[in-house]
Write a structure and sequence with these properties.
287 residues; alpha/beta; 5-stranded parallel sheet
Length: 287
């Protein structure tokens, strides 16, 4: 059992980990995939770096700093988060399941809308980005999950006992390893329907009749986890109070996933606030 589990190892997540660890709390940081910071060729507007610093260097240095302080930092993909009966948080990752007394979401906003004709038109009309949220509406119906990674398999698993049939469509990508779901690797040309989505049309002209399409491309981001936990959103951004708390007790969020100024300085500040707020919550609730 960790005092604080942080999802994301960018400037927000690492900053949160430093403040929580310096308060003598057990801290786990889980991250996976490329950070937006790593893509920055040069950062020359951040305090203290004369001549600038590459995003990759700043990212690597942050993780090194956290590890040297004693923070556990693991490169594992998180596929599912849920609250337990004892008001702790169970985080399911690639190789293990972890439990934390508090949770900080610092993933950035990784929602990916596929560039497929018709998808945007049917969002809310059969196209969904959250199986836990919307699966109930597809009881005994036929659905498909768009994606080919662990995130897609997790979403398909959430739908397995709800829908009558669950397909996984990879849109031309390599098929995931699974014997539980029928996988279609063909490229999608478009999706069609009238009031709601009804048909996936593939490049070879073949069609698949479905009642719902769940998009699960790449890895899950903060907004995806927020939906599963019932955290309030403002569009694709997580709503937070001044102390970075969400509407769920013990859950905090910081960095790009909260919207606003998408800069390192803002992420570091919010991370510090989230880390300190998690420590305060643990103290006030005798955890």
């Amino acid at each position: 059992m960790y005092d604080v589990i942080i999802i994301g190892a960018g400037p927000a997540g690492i900053s949160a980990s430093l403040y929580a660890k310096r308060a003598n709390k057990s801290v786990l940081v889980l991250y996976h995939g490329e950070s937006q910071l790593e893509k920055a060729h040069m950062i020359d507007n951040y305090y203290g770096f004369v001549g600038g610093i590459t995003g990759q260097q700043l990212y690597d240095d942050g993780i090194k700093q956290a590890r040297e302080l004693g923070v556990e930092v693991k490169n594992e993909q998180v596929t599912h988060i849920q609250m337990t009966a004892s008001m702790t948080y169970e985080v399911v990752a690639d190789s293990a399941t972890y439990e934390g007394k508090t949770l900080i979401l610092a993933t950035g906003n990784k929602k990916i809308r596929p560039n497929i004709k018709g998808v945007a038109d049917f969002e809310g009309k059969g196209v969904s980005y959250c199986a836990i949220c919307d699966g109930f509406f597809y009881r005994k119906k036929t659905v498909a999950v768009l994606g080919n990674g662990e995130y897609a398999l997790s979403e398909a698993g959430d739908l397995e006992n709800i829908a009558a049939k669950v397909y996984i469509i990879t849109d031309g990508l390599e098929a995931p390893q699974t014997d539980k779901f029928e996988v279609i690797t063909k490229k999608i040309a478009e999706v069609r329907g009238d009031a709601k989505i009804s048909t996936v049309v593939f490049d070879d002209g073949s069609e698949l009749t479905i009642d719902g399409l769940f998009v699960a491309l790449g890895v899950a981001g903060g907004a995806d986890f927020a939906k599963k936990l019932g955290i309030s959103l403002d569009g694709d951004s997580i709503k937070v109070n001044a102390d970075m708390s969400t509407n769920i007790p013990g859950v905090y969020s910081c960095g790009n996933v909260t919207g606003g100024l998408l800069q390192v300085c803002k992420a570091v500040y919010e991370g510090a606030e989230a880390g300190l707020s998690a420590v305060k919550y643990l103290k006030e609730n005798n955890k």
